[in-house]
């Protein structure tokens, strides 16, 4: 969903402005992309926007275009938008993520990943992690360093391919001013391997009475021809930030089984209890998204296609290693669930594929996070997770009823305004 909000009351309990639905366009493929442009006007107007506590209300929607339900072909790895276009240790797959209202995560990948029967992990310390940034083109008053890591996706079964990633870098830059353009480069200056200059714009501060210009919400994106339409459509609409509500690459459904794409996995690999994933798909997805994510912060939460199990109960390695999220900043200390503020909105990202019971760490964290929300600072409270609690899709009907029974009452208690999910299409 892309939300265009110019102004918003600072008091959640006494909103005095006109109904805001100016335009609503519904766009879907294998991806769920909701586009709504909302103009909120205050200052002495007699009408107001009701809260969710006064609902339910009749939804305003546009019917799905049936032509979009015909499926879509996967993009091949040699597609121009998926190919690697840098050499040696130059950065690629550059992505932004919010840290705090005055800081930003910048992540990227260097070097070459390996896939095959035998792979040798690279030493992540061989390439440095630097970001130069400033408010003028070519002038970088700030410099920060960060961490570099790799991950492995291993399948110790005959015929299956293993994978080891390139070097994944994460740097947090801080001391940023709100609603300001920053120019930056990332890479390793000692190797003369810095990126080209890129630019992003910071968001309004909480309590300022301002909001992100547009918020894009995407789920179940993948890498298909429909995905290209979705991202092109999104770039055209110039969002201020992105919520990615799970199921990013579908690497677990592309060229698995030793790269052969065998139609009968259990027949061809009877001794392999785990279905492999084609990890280069993640690298292709990072390149595919870079024109957008290198200038617009993207906040992710895991879906079922990010589980990617390995032996010894290892899972989610791609998701956990590739993305920076404000887990420590929000007190969750988990990349599976966290929260952040953007202007007058407090966002809560919940994990449906980790423990959500009332006795678990996520529930305890969620309760504490909700208790700290100040509606005079962030009048809007938005939650997102991958699988919807309510849907009529037969394959996923009541699939996460247990999560709903554990958490729904808490979200009602604190008056969550909007929930975004993916999973069904």
UniProtKB/TrEMBL annotation:
Reaction it catalyzes: a phosphate monoester + H2O = an alcohol + phosphate
Region entry Disordered, spans: 54-83
Residues forming coiled coils: none
Listed cofactors: Fe cation
Domain Purple acid phosphatase N-terminal stretches: 91-202
Record keywords, A-Z: Glycoprotein, Hydrolase, Signal, Zinc
Taxonomic superkingdom: Eukaryota
GO molecular function: acid phosphatase activity; metal ion binding
EC numbers: 3.1.3.2
Top-rank EC class of the record's enzyme: hydrolase
Pfam families linked: Metallophos (PF00149), Pur_ac_phosph_N (PF16656)
Domain Calcineurin-like phosphoesterase: 214-424
Family: Belongs to the metallophosphoesterase superfamily. Purple acid phosphatase family.
Name of the protein this chain belongs to: Purple acid phosphatase
Species in which this protein is naturally found: Olea europaea subsp. europaea
């Amino acid at each position: 969903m892309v939300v265009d909000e110019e102004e918003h009351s600072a008091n959640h309990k006494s909103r005095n402005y006109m109904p805001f639905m100016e335009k609503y366009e519904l766009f879907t493929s294998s991806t769920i992309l909701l586009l709504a442009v909302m103009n909120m006007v205050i200052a002495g107007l007699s009408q107001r926007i009701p809260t969710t506590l006064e609902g339910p209300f009749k939804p305003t929607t546009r019917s799905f275009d049936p032509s979009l339900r015909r499926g879509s072909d996967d993009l091949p790895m040699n597609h121009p938008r998926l190919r690697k276009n840098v050499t040696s240790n130059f950065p690629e797959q550059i992505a932004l993520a919010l840290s705090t209202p005055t800081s930003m995560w910048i992540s990227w990948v260097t070097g070459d990943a390996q896939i095959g029967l035998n792979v040798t992990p690279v030493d992540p310390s061989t390439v440095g992690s630097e970001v130069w940034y400033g408010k003028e083109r070519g002038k970088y008053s700030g410099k920060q360093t960060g961490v570099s890591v790799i991950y492995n996706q291993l399948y110790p079964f005959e015929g299956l391919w293993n994978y080891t990633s390139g070097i994944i870098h994460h740097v947090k830059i801080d001391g940023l001013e709100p609603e300001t353009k920053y120019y930056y480069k990332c890479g390793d200056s000692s190797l003369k391997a810095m990126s080209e200059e890129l630019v992003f714009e910071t968001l309004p501060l909480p309590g300022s009475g301002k909001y992100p210009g547009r918020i894009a919400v995407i789920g179940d994106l993948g890498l298909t021809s429909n995905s290209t339409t979705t991202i092109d459509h999104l770039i055209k609409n110039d969002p201020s930030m992105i919520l990615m509500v799970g199921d990013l690459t579908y690497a677990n459904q592309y060229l698995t089984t030793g790269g052969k794409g065998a139609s009968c996995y259990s027949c061809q690999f009877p001794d392999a209890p785990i279905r492999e994933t084609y990890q280069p798909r993640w690298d292709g997805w990072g390149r595919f998204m870079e024109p957008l994510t290198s200038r617009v912060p993207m906040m992710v939460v895991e879906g079922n296609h990010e589980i990617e199990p390995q032996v010894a109960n290892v899972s989610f390695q791609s998701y956990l290693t590739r993305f920076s999220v404000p887990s420590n900043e929000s007190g969750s200390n988990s990349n599976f669930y966290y929260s952040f503020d953007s202007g007058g909105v407090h966002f809560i990202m919940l994990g449906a594929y980790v423990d959500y019971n009332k006795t678990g760490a996520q529930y305890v964290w969620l309760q504490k996070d909700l208790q700290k929300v100040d509606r005079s600072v962030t009048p809007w409270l938005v939650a997102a997770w991958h699988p919807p609690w309510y849907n009529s899709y037969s394959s996923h009907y009541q699939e996460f009823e247990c999560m709903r029974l554990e958490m729904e009452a808490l979200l009602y208690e604190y008056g969550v305004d909007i929930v975004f999910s993916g999973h069904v299409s």
